[in-house]
Every structure is written in structure tokens, then in C-alpha cells.
Fold each of these.
Amino acid sequence: MSAAQVATLSPEAVTIEERTPFQIVMTRFKRHRLAMVSMIVMIGIFLVTILAPYIATFEIQELSVNKYFVPWGTVDAETGRVHHMGTDNIGRDYFSRLIYAGRISLTVALLSVLISETIGVIVGAISGFFGGWIDSVLMRFVEFMLTIPQLPLLLIISSMILRDDQLIAIPDPILKFMGNILLLSPRDSRNAVLIVLVLAGFGWLSAAQLMRGTVLSLREQTFVEASRSLGASNFRIITRDMIPNAMAPIIVDASLGLAGYVVAEAALAFLGFGIQDPVPTWGNMLAASQQFMLDRPWLPLVPGLPIFICALAFNYIGDGLRDALDPRLKL
Amino acid sequence: MTAYFIRRIFQMIVVLFISAIATYALLNLAPGGPLQGLRQIQQGGRFQITEDDIARIRAQFELDLSLQYRFTRWLVGWPTGPIVLGGTEYFSDVVVGCRKPVESEILNDEGQYETKVTGCKEVVYMKDLVGRRTSRGLLRGDFGLSWRLLRDRPVSDLIVSRLPKTIQLIGLSTLLSLLIGIPLGVYSAVRQYSKFDYFFTSLAFMGSAMPTFFFGIIMILLFSILPKDAGWPYVPAGLSESVRGYTIPLIGEVAAGSVKDRILHLVLPVAVLTLVQIAGWSRFVRASMLEVMRQDYVRTARAKGLSERVVILKHAFRNALIPFITIVVFTLPGLFSGAIITESIFAWPGMGRLYILALGDSDYPVAMAIFFILAVLTVIATLLRDVLYTMVDPRIRLS
């Protein structure tokens, strides 16, 4: 082959189409069929909960007097609104409460993941990067916290917080912000903020361990050495080299964490130590329905199924993301 | 090696000590507690409760002592009074608490009046502690007295009466799930990518995503409520034995409290815990088996001409069990936590339910005792796991 022949080959003939890392990940993610289905299901659930005020026919605390446990699809005689899923034991619209509950449960899970992964990434990066006594102190603390049985500890802390809700002062702007997201009064959203704090307060531990491990292996890579020899500061190395490169396991951990938090929040509410009744969550609706299931067996299925579906879907999405982001990754 | 263990045991004690302080402070600093109801009665004005009555009740719950003295008395049963050395009493005038706190309404930052303790009318001195009832201390195996659930009875009585129920539940379900889960995991690994494997792994995946509380409720629906309504044989749900006798189609009459009754009540909670554990353990066994079957020594075993059966059972399976044993040991204390939810759904009178009741009723001595027992179990299990690692796998060196 002469030089002239090579020159005549068009660039299209020898190079394949260039794709961004995002496109590559998306192609691989699409191959995981269950993860794709889960993604679509979750987008649907999120849409419903975001549009809750437009879809819900009633307010969450609106009581219909003398209309307890009305059948599905009953029409309210005065206003013409429909009880899509009937009412509960004190005459509140079950369907409206269900979608508002989804909004609250999912927001709590999302915020918990966001906070815990952020703290975990920062602590883990510092611990892994600097090593030495900082690493020892931080990791001993994390190990110490993980040795204590988690569920009993969560229960103790939330029971204490619930008994006196003034115990931890939460700034008003945060309450108002949360109230705006959850469409509740700032006073009612206080409980949700506290549960987020409790869940994230324990959730960051494992994220920190994961991040530390990743940073430890990244620290030895040549590109870090290159950055350093170019005179980059520690801060720059951590924020520009370490954190972006450690994102894959963190993203997978976050999506699996979402499943965990949805279930954990529901479990706390189910045991009576989570978000309390006038504010609906899937967990406390399930707990409340348990005493009526002898006569109305379908009642617990309504709030229980979304918990299960979300837990399963987030797990599948996490699984798919793991395969897509880094097939070698084991978590 | 010895140095490692000494260090680990020392660490263990520190962890337990810190968690004891932390949880004790957490529970005792929070307002409310056993006097809450009393205050409401007093404010209602229907009963005349004098200051002295309140002081007496406070003394009964040791609420008149400062936190640090309360804690040491709870932990080691000390101080019980002044130290007597050679006939003289030392520290007898040390203030250890307040019998009658002065509460007043204070304007807080938000412009509202709040009741706060501002002073003390009558203090408690060390010498007043002489002759007071006290526990011998947690470290000497005395958990103190229950405040609410079984008023003034030792916490240990409560726990001892509940413990067998929890052990029954956990023991049975662990045994069953190991017996079923291990073969399933091994079979699934040996037939990797077969239809069975796909079916089973997706089932296990769903099982581990399933929240226990919802699963329990579905089981109650499927095996208790619906069949009962339809007139089919059903399994009773709730409590560990029934109050009244009942008749089940095909099984016949069941007397309350009989062996048959108890076994029937065990079925559902054990089934829930078993299925949840099968999901977790079989997945682990499968992964572990797959890992081992890729190893050279398995190929060697095959190359020697050993039968597939021997290769899998003797060479692969035994090695796959190594990490599995440590996992099982480590998860055992966690099972107690898992039992909290299962026991709550089925109103099973075990430790987990007791814990929930104690927290709900502000019966701190009971809650603290259970929490402490769980913490000790978990810490010991962590140590045991690390020891087992080195024992079963000499390649791992401890430093």
C-alpha cells in the first residue's frame, strides 16, 4: 500500500463514530432490560408524585364525615369529586393520600441519599487521600458506628426525637423549603426533616468506606502523579482527579441506597417511630391499614406495593448502572 | 497474633463503653419519661399531688440524681453512699442531685413562655444515698427495674421470659434457611445460566428487595385471612398461642395453648424470616461457589478424573463454605434486629417486640438492657468473624 492510497481513504472509513462516555454508558444500560423497565416505572411514579396536587382529588387531611371505607370510585355528592380508591377509617381519600405519601416517602429517600453520599464522598476522599492520623481517626469512628446494631439504634434515636420535637432546632428556612417540596405546613414537615437527618446520619458511613477504598486505589495512579508534578494543590487533585474518577461506585451505591432508604423510612413509620399519622407516608399508611385487613384485605396492598416496587426498581437500576458504568465493579 | 487479639478485645470494650454512655445519655436527656403523665394530672387539677409526692416518685426512678451519678449507678451500681475509710465518711457532702427543682416560666427567643428548671430548693447529698434501693450495675448482670411494662420488677425477668420466644423464632428460621438456602445456591451455581439459575436468581433478587413488613402482611393475607374467609384450612397469625380454642378445616379442633396451637402459630413468622434469609444466603453461596469453581484446584480435581459429584461436594463446596461461615456468624446478631420487625407484625411476644414496646412506653431500663445485649452480641460477632477468617483461611494474616 503506497502513501497515496492511504491518503485517499476517507476519515469515515477508518474511524468509528465518536461517542461520549455518557452515550456509551447509556447503550450499555439499555442492554439491561429489567433496569430499563425499572427506570420507566420509576419515572412514571416520580411524575405522578410531582403532579400530585393536579392528580389528587382531595386534600390529604380532608375528612369526609360519615363516609368511612367507602368503595372505590365513589363520587362525593356535594362536590362531584371521585374517591378513586375509597376512603380510610376516618374518611380521608385513600388515593390522594397515597400519592402525597409517595411524594413524601420518595423525597425523604432522595434527600437522605443526597446528604449521605455527599458527606460520605467528602469524608472518604479526605480520609483516603491524606491517610495517616486523619484516616485512622475518621475510619475508627466509622467502624465504631457500624459496630452498633443499626435498626435498634435508629429506633432509639427516632423515638427520642419524636418524643420532643423541639429537641433539635431546625432553622425555619429549611422547614419552609421542605414544606414547599412536600406541600405541607412547615410544622408538619419538621418530622420529615428529622427522619432525613437520622437516616443520612447513619447512611454516610458505608459511603465513606466505599469512597476511601476507591480513593486509595486512585492515589497510586499515574494521572494523579502527573497532576501533582504539574503543581496541582491537594484541593485541586481531590476535586478534579479523585472525586470525578470515583463517581462510578458512588452512583451505583446511591441508587442501591435509594432502595434502602425507601424501605428504612417505611420500616420506621411502620414500627411507629417514623413520620407520624396526619402526614401520610407509605409506611404509616401500611401500619394503619394492618388493623383493618381482616375485613378489607386489599387495604394494606395499596401502600405496600409501591414500597416493594420502588425497592425492587431502584435495585434493578443500581444493578444496571453497575454493569453499565464498570462491569468489573463488585459492590 | 496474641497482641492483635489483646488490642481487639480492648477496642471492643471501648466500643461497648462508648455506646453505653451514648445511648444512656440519649435516652435520659430527652424530656418526657415516666413523669410526663404525672405532670398532666397535676395541671388538670383533679388530684392534689404535693411537691413531696413528686419528689418521692422522682427518687424512686432516680430522676433526682444528676446524669453522671445515675449512669454510674446503672452501669456498676456505684456510688451507694459516702466512702467509709477507717470510720470516717468521705465525700458525704458532695451534691449528687436535686430533690425539688424549681421550675419557672422563661421567655425564650421566639417570644413564648417555656417551663425550665432554674434552680433547686432541696439538693441530694451523697450521704442521702445510703439505704436507697439500687441495682448492682449492668456490668454485674443487673439490669435494674422496669419502669412501666412490668412496674418494679427486674428487667432481667422480662427479658428471660421473652428470650426463649425469640430464640425459637430465630433458631428455627436460621436452621431451615440454611438447610434450604445452601443447596439452592450450590445447585444454581453448578447450573449457571440454566433456566433454573435465571428463575432462582431473579426470585432471590426480588426476595432481598422485599421489605419484611410488607412480606409479613402478604403472608398473613394469603395464608391466614383469605383462606379463613373461604373456609379452607388456614394458619393462625398473631401472638404465640391463641387465647381461645378454634377449629381449622382438615386439621380439626385446636385447644388454646396446646402443642399443636403453638406450632401453628410458629408457622407464619418462621416462614417469613426463613424466606428472607434464604434469599440472602443462597445468593452468597452461589457467588462464592462460582468464585471457587473457577480456581485451578477444581480444574485439577476434574483432570484427576474425579466424578463431578466429588469435585463439587468435596473440592468446590467445602472451600466455598469458608467465607460463608464467617458471614453466617456475623449476621446472627443482626437477626435479632430483623426479628424486631417480624415480631411486630405477628405480635410475637419476643425480645424485638419488647424493645418496641419499651421505647414506645419510655421504659428506658428495658430498652437500654436490650440495646446493650444486642451491642455486645454484635461486637462479639465482629471479633469472632475476624478470628474465624484467620482460622479457616491461613492465607489471611492479621496485623
Amino acid sequence: MSPVRLVGPVRGLVIVGALVAFPLVFNEHWVVNIAIFTLMYAALATAWNLFAGYSGYISLGHVAFFGIGAYTLANAFSTATPLRGSATSLESHQLMSIGSGYRPFYVLPLVGLAVALLAVPIGWIALRTRAITFAIVTLTLLFVFQNLAFNLRGLTNGSSGLSMPTPNFDVSIYERPFYYAMLGVLLIGLVISWHVRGSKLGLMLFSIREDEEKARGLGVRTTGVKLIAFAASAGLTAMAGGVWAYYLTYIYPEYAVDPLVMIGSVLPVFLGGRGTLWGPVLGAIILVPAQQYMAYRLGASEFYLVGYAAVFVVILLVLPRGILPSLGDAYERWRYRGSRLTPAEEVPAS
Amino acid sequence: MSAASLLEAEGLTKRFGGVTAVDGCSFSVQSGSLTALIGPNGSGKTTLFNLLTGYARADGGVIRFDGRIVRRPDPISLYRAGLTRTFQQARIFPELTLIENMTVAVHQPWRAIVYPAVRRADRELARELLAEFGLSRLEHDRADRLSYGQKKLLEFATVLMSRPRLVLLDEPTAGVNPVMVERIEERIRALHARGLTFLVVEHNMPLVMGLCDPVIVLDHGRKIAEGPPAQVQNDPAVLDAYLGT
């Protein structure tokens, strides 16, 4: 391989190595806690980017799959069986807490696959619309699933929430398993995203993003291609939801299907750069700690959301295409410095 | 109609509210011909193109491609059957490179989605075509760096990637400088000589009359004349439509 072709893999290994080493270097619980949420949003943003960033379809309903993933895992390993409607007793909690351990993590890929399959019919209906209509339809999806989470008491225990057993991980490094599980989800997302970028599937998705009608005119099976990306993206989102549920051990409808989580998965993509591989990760690494800091500085009221909104406005004003594409543009300008404005030889006649 | 007709339209009709854009149009494109479709602005040429390529649904009439009735025309299956088109405003994928633009147009079976984006065979065919169209030097540039005329060339080259049987060109030389017009004309001639069938919408009359035969004339969505260029040029109905009364 030529040195140029090694840049990508080496960069990938360095970043992944740093992420693997992080909790070994920083032991403080609060740091690792923030790191877990950073990874979660990096994974969510990467999953969202796989569909929305590549195809150009803005989905505002992905957090519904986050919730489905969370509830699926919580159901499989819950302390109380909500079907019988019994409240969580201290006794059953203690009994079960010995049990689960790492098992929920092993089940996670299955949850991802199942939710990806579930996403196919949902996506098939939603993808009959385009552009802003698609955004609205998927936003509706978010609220439909939140309502379902409140009302399908048999599965979710309604607004009283669902609990999972607290695993008996070593207290001093309690967060580590969750950190690595979340990192695993992120890595799966990155590997899929990387592969798709370099494959025909990616090329087809990009052609849809650029001009869907034209792509149809060139024989690209647009609906199928979009559905594949949508399903993969939904499955990854659900896996992140599963880890989240196990980490919190107690989930409620309003947090499992939360518009704020949705925004949190979209913003990093816009900041880092839509359609890029590392943009969503970079965006999450900047935004999540910043959000935590603002939440800390601006108090427990949701005043920090104003700061968050301000970040979004600044992104749109200063870096409308995101950090990585803007850097790419700067590099292009540098590469073509001193040459003609365009490589075109001819002057258009009209 | 003769057995050699590649594309046939019978009584094609399209209404937009009260306006009948295409009104009972019947014509055929012979296999191996270089057929022109002309008519004053608003005569329904582009709408007709949209009906033939599945971008718009006809209100009435029948389309036959390669002897078979196309029941529900749709761009994807028609393209795969060998009928392809370009657009009046050159439509390319601006953020993809020229090679990638060309590669999108290759027929792909489903299993191909996991293949590398640009395979060796795709690249070779794309390079060959880009060379023929004089775009070789820009093959790794993004398509949005091209001039308008170059974009038209690229779009034309792109639809050839699938080795189509019939190419519908919607105003291939509109807004393009004279040198580029010559290049496009030369490409059409060369491809036609190799057996490719064309249906061309064009406003550049000297070009049409020198290049195409037969010429179909449309006015207010109706076919008003059809025949060799010399005959059409002297047809009173055609003169009437263009000069007005």
C-alpha cells in the first residue's frame, strides 16, 4: 500500500486506540460517565449519519428505535415482570441483580438485528415521502412510539418505568463494561459506515442525496437502497439504546423516546460534517462534554438548552457544511491555489 | 407500424388541469434511426419525454418499447431495459467525481451493493467514454467543477455506461458554446454510426436538419408533421406553427 492509502487505517487505529485506553487512564466515575454518554451520542450520530448523512433524508424519528432497543433489552432482563403488573420489590431486585452480568451485552447484536428487521416495514411506509415531508412523518413516528411506551403497559410498565438488575461489577471500575459496550456499538457503526462509503451501496446513496430523480433515471433502485440504510441505521440506534437502558437500569417512556436524544444524535452530524466517516464522532466529542459543562454551569433548569441551541445557530452560520467538509474545502483551495478558478477550459456561451 | 420500430407511442395524452400538454400523440422511432422531435416552446416536447421515460404518468395512450407494451413506465426499469435519457438542464451528481458519476449508471444486480464503489471494469469503461468525450483530464475532479457545457457532455457520456439501445436527448446543445456544440454533434454521429438509436429534442435548427432524419414536429401537444428534414421544412403547417399567424 502506498503511504497515502495508509493514512485512513492509521488514523482509525489511533482514534480507536485512544478510545480503548481512555477509561484505563481516567478512572474518575464522573469522567467515565461523561465519556459513556459521549460514546453513546457518537454511536447514535454515526448510525443517523449512515442513513441521513449518506442519503440526504432527514429522519427525526430515529430515537423511536433507541427506545425500542432499550425496552427490548429491559424486558428481556427486567427485575419485575410487568405482564403480571407487580411492582419491583427489593427482594426480587436483589435476587436478580446477581444474575445478568454481561449477558445483556451478548444479546445486543440480536436486538440490533431484530430492530433492523422491524424498521423495514416502518421505513417502507415513511420512505414513500421525501425531503421535509419525510422529516415530519418520522417526527410523528417519535411521538407515536413515545405514546406506545406510555400505554403498552404490558411491555413497558407505562409511566412507572421498567427496571433492570444492577450488575455486580466491581464498584471501582463499575462503568467500564458499559463504556466498552458502547464503544463496541460505535465501532460496529463505524465499520459499517466505512464499508458502505467505499461500496456501491454508498455510491448509490450519495447519488440519491445529490439528485434522486436523476439516480432513478440511471437505474438506481432507490427505494431498496434507502431501506437497507434505514434498517441498518435503526438497528445500530437500538443497540445504543440497549446499552443505555442497562447502564441506567431504570427507564421511563419520556427518556427512552426523548426528542432531546434525537437532537443530540443529529447535532454532532451537522457539526462534524454530514456524510463523512469521522464527522459524527468528532461532533459528539465536542458537543457532549460541552453540553455537560453548560448543564453544570447554567444550572439544573433546562437553561442549558438555550446554549445548545446557540451552538446550532453558530454551526449553521459559520460552518454550514460541518467541520470536516469545511477543512476539506480549505485543503482543496490550497491544492488549487494560484490555478484558475475552475479547471474548465472553455467559457460557457450563455 | 414496421417491425423495426424500437419505441412506439400511440395516442399519448397528458393533461395538467385544463391544459392538454400532450394531445393524442402517435409516432414511432425506428431502430437505428436518428429521430428529431422539434416544435415551438411549450409544444409538449419535454412532457412527451417525461411520459416516455416514466417521469410522468400518461392520462391515455400506449407506449411500446422493443415491441412490448410498457404498462407502468418507470425510469428504473426502462433504463434497465435500455431506454435512457438526458435532461434539458444537465443533471449530474455535483459532489461525486466524474468517474463516480459514470459508475452510478452501470447496471447493478442486488448483490453488487457490497462491491467496491468503482470496480476495475467500471473504471475502464468510464475512462474510455470520458476520453471519447474529451473529459479525461478531469476524471478525478468533482463534477461541480465542470463548466455547463462539460456537464452536458458528462451527462451524455454517463447514460452510455449501461450500453443503452435508445437515448433520448433533451436539448443536448442548449446553452453550450459553438465548439462544444460541434463536439456533441460529432459524438451523436459517431454513436449513431455504431448503431445506437436516438430521439433528440433540439432547438438548433441547422443542427437538427443536418443531423436527423426523420423529423417529428409537435405543436400544442399534437404531431403536425413527420418526415425527412427537407420535407418538414417546407410543410405549411410547420411554418405556420413556428412563424405564427
